[in-house]
Amino acid sequence: MISILLALLACTGAPTDTGATASECGDPDGFGTDTGDIPNVLGNWTSQFALNFYDDDCSTENLDADSESWIGSFELDGRAPDALYMSFGSSAERYWGAMDQNGGMTLAGQHVHPEGTLYAQFGGLVYRDQYQDRDVIDGSAFLGLDVDADGVIDCRAKGSWKAYKSGL
Fold first, then answer.
1. What whole-number distance in Å separates Cα of residue 142 and Cα of residue 107?
2. How crowded is residue 149: how many other Cβ atoms within 10 Å of its Cβ?
3. What tens digit of pLDDT does each residue of 104-123 get?
4. Would you place residue 23 in the very low, low, confident or very high pLDDT band (cuts 50, 70, 90)?
5. Domains, the chain
6. Euclidean distance between CA atoms 100 and 161, whole angstroms
7. C-alpha distances in angstroms, 35 versus 4, 102, 168?
8. What SS3 class is residue 123?
9. CA-to-CA distance for 102 and 2, rounded, in angstroms?
10. pLDDT tens digits, residue range 129-160?
């Protein structure tokens, strides 16, 4: 319990002797005091898929821009830069990924889809939108569907993906 409290204090900027670095707390370029201005990515986010762009080559009726409602609220956890993971809603599915000191981030994993196994990749640029006064991930998502469980993606879809950090 004490080690958890010390780690939390280290990630809030309070002086401790835990040796936690800013990147371990979700901010690969510092605690917001440097010139990189990449926000801390850990925490709760709300995302939108295929709002501005969507394209697919699927004949499957259950894979389109409106059918993937599981892509929405998610929690981003782990350690930056290379041990991050996100999970959507109450799902136990984890999407593992990494980010760099410039704010580029990508996460990938599998989703149990009614039509088969869906391989998903989400990525984009993490930044602070000064006009909306919010932290944003702006990028795209790729979905590859394996309908016959042979390990081969039978159809694919891609679309815009944008996430906003929840809370203040």
1. 11
2. 8
3. 999 999 999 999 999 999 99
4. very low
5. 2-14+21-165 (2.40.128.30)
6. 19
7. 29, 11, 21
8. strand
9. 33
10. 999 999 999 999 999 999 999 999 999 999 99
